[in-house]
Amino acid sequence: MNRKKLFASSSDKIVFYSILPLVVGVLSLFILIGFSIFSQAWVSFERFGTNLLVLSVWKPSEDPEAELYGLATPLIGSLYSSLLAIAVAVPVSISLTYLVGEVLPSSIGDLLRVLIEIMGGLPTVVYGLWGSLVLAPFLRDSVMTPLHRYLGFIQIFSCYPLTGYSVLTAGVVLATASTPYVTSLLIEGYQMIPAKYREGAYSLGATKYEVFKVLLGLLKPYVVAASLLGFSRALGETTIVTLTIGNSMRLPLCLFEPTMTIPSLIASQFESARLYTYAMPTLFAGGFLILLVSLGVSYLGIKKLYKWREEIRA
Amino acid sequence: MRDVSKGLSRVYVILVISLVAAAASIAIYVQTYNLTQSTTTTSTPIWSGVTLSGAGATFLAPQMIEWSRILSETKGLKVEYQSVGSGAGRDMFFNKVVHFAGSDPPLSKSLYQQYVGKVMQLPVVVGSVVMIYNIPEVPSDKTLCLSSDVIALIYKGEITKWDDERILQLNPELRGLLPSREIIAVHRSDSSGTTSVFTTYLNKASPTIWLKDLVGLTVDWPVDEKGRGVGGKGNEGVTQAVKTTPYSIGYVELNYAITQGLPTAAIKNSAGACVKPTTETIRAALQNAAPSLPKSPLDDWSDALLQVLNAPGEKSYPVVSFSYIFIYKSYPDKAVVEALKEFVRWVNTEGQNYMVPGYLPVPEEIRQVNLKAVDLLTVGGS
């Protein structure tokens, strides 16, 4: 009805038209980035076809005929390390949400929230360096070696940990780096739950933990959404993973083995990729694939998030 | 009363601050005035105002930055170098985005054919790949000696323990000290000129053990399959991995081993002697290899690495390499040509006295070859 007239006043009109180019610009930039990555990658898709998804090789050569690339390991490595990160980060984030939301007095809770936000703002290279210099040797000596010694018969613990650079280490550092993001999302969602639920629960004589359990049940779709968003973030993380995953072109059947991800492959091979005919297109192909996965997961996450917000308000 | 004194002291503070500021600005003005005076009073060379731009190998970057600093201070010649990697540097050079490229590998045979007579290759820096190790049982005053066969077998995963008979034979005085522990072989995980030099050496010195398909900037390491190999990103990554992993071995550029203070292994050379990587042994290798190297910057340098690796001579350290700069034979701009002439001349004369630790100057014979480029440079379309 009142949409009939788009602008109530001329100043509304001026603001709209002055902002319009920015909005269009951002959108078209995004589409252009996607398109240019795809067009750069096309040569590689054309040349290697499905081999790109099935094989695990990085064999550059001065002779273009002899070049052979397959991205199976980095693709699986990306998914693997990000899943691991989320598997660690989500329980930690839920616990933090419980602390901030129910247990701690609001002054200390706020302080904790600020700390979490600051952690989220730290440059990722800080996490990466800490992971490679401190955490990797520590995990190797006090987690991986004992696990391997006593539970070595289980497939994922079966390999002997060498330097500590492994899927596990990368996953743990990634988890540390994505916990602040997931926690912020969860706390935000938790505080969005209308007071009547909490009051109702307390009036029935529920303990703090029981109240949290009830509210967490309500929050469940939101937790899934936050995990998806955190996963998509971890997927694209470059510095942390490159410094901690060991960058080896092998499928990691065991948690203590080094492997690589698409971003770490790009970071490792970019410098000399231009020496060969198909190396750069293949890196772009990897970038494009990871972009697709990340877009898909983010879309699902955001959709779930919005849906939940609408439902909880209703 | 108090108010007045407070107001007065505020006035003083402002006065002092403005005085200091004025003095500082005058000082800066005088300084820059003197600087511009001193550069303009010395005769203005044709290249003043030109900034030479280069891009390429990260290995060359520290040395290039040092050279460019000294050149701009003493001669007023500005040289910019972007550390983007050999591949990207070449790309920028062939697309004429930059005046020169820095590259660890020389042009391959096919690329050389493509640019023959147009591009000149000048080896300006000598690098060396060294083996670093972490064996707590070996005291720091004793040196481990390795042969190319042993190194190749370690990286193939066939020599698995430090007390392997083949290692003990090379190190009779370490018998009893070398433990029966598994060797962990650390290598570069990113593509790197260092890996290329290292694997080319293994292939040249032990061709039956280290086959041709295991040579290159990135290699599918056999030892990884055995679960005893691990990658590190960059020289710093390998250094870090070796430092934190007992019983490991790795290969890095000499400058890294020097700055990190890690023990380096001696390597058995073609004359059968165990040689530590030092300035003298690396220089000896180059001097012994020099007669078989190309005689002009316009020649094909693609085999030069093979000549300097495993060079003859009792004192030669076997794993030595060059890093190159590529320049065109002709540029359309006269000022650029003159600037490049000055740059090439200086780098191959005085510049060789200003080496960053871990980087070695090229031997006299090579400098003479490089200096030919000064006369070859011409103005014209390219």
Could you characterize what this model shows?
- The complex is a heterodimer of chains A (314) and B (382).
- Chain A has 314 residues and is an all-alpha fold.
- Helix content of chain A is 75%, strand content 1%.
- Chain A contains 11 helices and 2 strands.
- Chain A has a two-stranded antiparallel ribbon with strand order 1-2.
- In chain A, strand 1 and strand 2 (68-69) form a beta hairpin.
- In chain A, helix 3 runs antiparallel to helix 4, helix 3 (72-103) runs antiparallel to helix 8 and helix 6 (167-192) packs across helix 8.
- The longest helix of chain A is centred in the first third of the chain and has 39 residues, at 10-48.
- Chain A is flat.
- Chain A starts with 9 loop residues before the first helix and ends with a helix.
- By secondary structure, chain B is α/β, with parallel strands linked by helices.
- Helices cover 43% and strands 18% of the residues of chain B.
- In chain B, strands 2-1-3-11-4-8-6-7 form an 8-stranded mixed beta sheet. Chain B has a 3-stranded mixed beta sheet with strand order 5-9-10. In chain B, strands 12-13 form a two-stranded parallel sheet.
- The longest helix of chain B has 40 residues, at 2-41.
- Chain B starts with a helix and ends with a strand.
- The chains are: A mainly alpha (314), B alpha/beta (382).
- At the A-B interface, strand 1, helix 5 and helix 10 of A face helix 3, strand 7 and helix 9 of B.
Using brief descriptors, characterize the structure shown.
heterodimer; A: 314 residues; mainly alpha; MetI-like fold; two-stranded antiparallel ribbon; 11 helices; flat; B: 382 residues; alpha/beta; 8-stranded mixed β-sheet; 3-stranded mixed β-sheet; 43% helix
CATH superfamily of chain A: MetI-like
Low-confidence runs of chain B: 36-42
User: Main sheet of chain A?
Assistant: 2 strands, antiparallel
Beta-strand portion of chain A reads under 5%
Tell me the β content of chain B.
15-25%
Mean pLDDT of chain A: 89
Major β-sheet of chain B, in short?
8 strands, mixed
Low-confidence regions of chain A? none
State the distance separating the first and last CA atoms of chain B.
Answer: 82 Å
Rounded mean pLDDT score of chain B: 86
